[in-house]
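Regression report. Comparing outputs from two consecutive submissions.

Submission 1:
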Amino acid sequence: MRPDGPAGAVRPGGPAAAVEPDGPAGGAGAAPAAAVEPAGPAGGAAAAGPGRGRHGDPPTGGGRPGDPPPNGGGRHGHPRPTGRHGRPPLRVGLIGFGLAGAAFHAPLIAAVPELRLATIATSNPERSRRARERFPQAGVVPDADALLDTADELDMAVVASPNRFHVAYGLAALEAGLHLVVDKPVAASAADARRLATAAEERGLVAAAFHNRRWDGDALTVRRLLDDGALGRLFRFESRFERWRPVVDVKRWREQPAPEDAGGLLFDLGSHLIDQALCMLGPPARVYAEIARRRPGARVDDDVFIALEYAGGVAAHLWMSHVTAQLGPRFRLLGSRAAYVKYGLDPQEAALRAGERPDTPGFGREPREGWGTLGTDAGVERVETEPGRYVAFYEGMARAVRDESPPPVPLADATRGLEVIEAARVSAERGAVVEPATG
């Protein structure tokens, strides 16, 4: 079950082939990570049951053949190094080393002392070379089967493969007794996301969705302003993720129309915008959407507008587009006392793609010229952007496994986002306002 090439041995129910992602991840402390922590049930965190259990350590008596000794010995019985709190770091296996795996997951995992990047699965020779060069402490294996065959030497699996393989790899990792992180969108349907959550709960394992953009600096700033009442009563929440990419790259799997690929902008960038809105405002009462293919040769949506209507009268308007020649504000919030307007993207993705380490001083801080403004026509003031902290996601995963705290992004939250995506597609087909279904 290779993450990026022809299949080797395939586990029952596993995919036959995969290619690693080439789009944005999706692909997300000093800035209060708790300020954008999810509300609601902890989808993948149940009381410990069969399998490895909440703390990531094998049972002291009887575990699976080949399980490391209870004191946390490594592959050859040697003591494992200890993390910040004197406990062995949780051993993480990463499936996929495309953009999502290489630029986001691997460096973020490596920046958390309580985690150790132990194994990377990729069948692409050039990516294998880069993985060994950048993370020499990690073993590199050719496919997901090889990684899962050594599950007794791991505590957690991270699925950063293309979307069509998220559920199959996730279920296989849970079956192997591993705690789980799945990149967004966790599945192509809310029903499949619920399958993952149920499998995790039945085994007493932690499972989370990688919605890293909860920890964008501008999202943290918006949450702070809302919590502080700086806007007064909120009228409208506007959020954009726009680009100017007028030419279709037919080689990208995200441009393919097969339903299992969950391609197009609604699943890609829309997953981020919807998750941020739900995280800050809660679930909407009604959904309206316009979904279009604008570019010549486009086979998936590339220009999307979504309106979320809330019972209290707040409206959330979300735009995602590949055909925006002049970009609008990233955030614009209108309230009874003031408005907040913010242009430009959080700097973390660009820094990670340039090879910067997320644990270096100043990482995630935005220069003053990028700060948003708060005020009215009578006058505005610059508002310092909170430092972005994608690393907070993996810090939260370590706490969830070790200390039984809620996952940083429960699968229940990701499922609600997929329910909104499904409602948006129904709305666009009917040209009508719809109510999102709930499982």
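Submission 2:
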Amino acid sequence: MLFIRYAILTLVIWGLTGVNALAAWSEAKSENFIFVGDVSENRAKAIITELEEYRLVLFKLMGVDPEPEVIPVKIYGVKSSKAITDITGNVGAAGVYTTNREGPVFVLNVKGGFSQKSPAHQIAYHEYTHHIISAYSNNVYPRWYNEGYAEYLSTFEVRQDGRVKLGLPSQNRARALGQIKWFPMDVLLKSIRSYPYKNNNKRTTSHARAIFYAQSWLAVHYISSTEGYPEKMRAYLKRLNEHDVPADLFEQSFGMSPEAFGDLLKAYHKKNKYLYLTMNFNGGFSVPNIVSRKLTKGESEFHRGEAVRRFRKGTMQQELAEKYYARADEADGPSAQISASRAQLASERKDHDRAIAEITKALALAPDDSRILHIAGLIQLNIYKFKEAPQTYSVIKEARSYFKKAMRANPKNMTAHFEYVSTYAAANDELSKQAIYSAQECSYYFRDRNFIDSNLVLADTLMKAGKLESARPLLEKARVWSRSRQTRAYAKNALKRISQN
């Protein structure tokens, strides 16, 4: 059952502490999550357990039956904001979520442990909420709502009697609302595709980030708790995902100006009385099996390198990742996965000879590994696309062969599915049944805004195969949300052609 309660906020001031040195990492795995980080083995297992519980609650809240993640969510746990900056390049963040063709990943600051109500606790829930929003919805959400909703749910609590609480007031966000000058509401509500502050470590930016998250949390809390406002929000999102963003979109949906909405939020904050939800899980949580282990020194260094590779791009990524890979080699000796990652980085910088040499080592050690087979195919595809000299058709055939082997080794290797489709786009070949099937599967999975432009490969493939209605959602999203004017125009014209058929 679901109950509504009130909470009165009591402010707690958090103190700042020093940064711990790096230690040996631990790993915990379930069918939905893989955690690696700077915590004990028991703590790693506890993080996965509580994320699994949170996941079950979110699916119940959405009214759908949970199914295993297609690609498990990868989580890196570090013990300082500086470590997060080193990995991601984001300054001053307590957690960062992103997703790419390899799958969803986030990093969080686990400084101070992972007890109930700890900052790390809320950061983990916040970042996983981003994944739920991007992976399980066809809508794209404005930045202010995306961050506000993640904050709204991040105060999730489980009680010993099986009850869970959602929407409890956020101590640190409410404190910021009383201490920092607010953004004008029109600035906040125009934060659709990007944030209203720069990515640097200046004090003014730190304050801007804090108040942006605080106002976004308050806006979502008010909308979620006020009669009639969830319907207004649904109307707003519907319009937002159907049209280019008009200047008066908020007024059309909510029937008031941003300034009037801001006045309501200030009164709501001043009242200091917040609704929250209570749900009963009397039968407990059916959490999937979790296995954990302590990593070796070499494995820990490898995963640090992988975290950098997943989040950063360019020269900084290459140099920092290689530093960790070299330490891993020194500690545990060469491994197939290290060689595969080096091969992938070399291919990205168009060092094809180094890429082939490294992937040859990896394949010799693990010839049936799906990830390694996929990277082998990716190298051949990049050679076909990037080299100045014309490439023979045998190169694209070899790429396809590797991708098919990767898909056979792991049918859920969605990256291999996507790149297999890409070979047909690159060579302008007649589509195989596998290419059509893979394009459809990828169109269901790759929903995040990060894929909007590159998903045109899938849309073009599906249109070529006559699957016009399968292509339509990809094109609709690109028409509204792409940052490229050229992409928006292309999607608009493609949709016209579909409508004429």
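Expected: both submissions complete independently.
Actual: both completed, but the second showed a warning that disappeared on reload.
Relevant detail on submission 2: The chain has three domains: 2-280, 334-416, 430-501.
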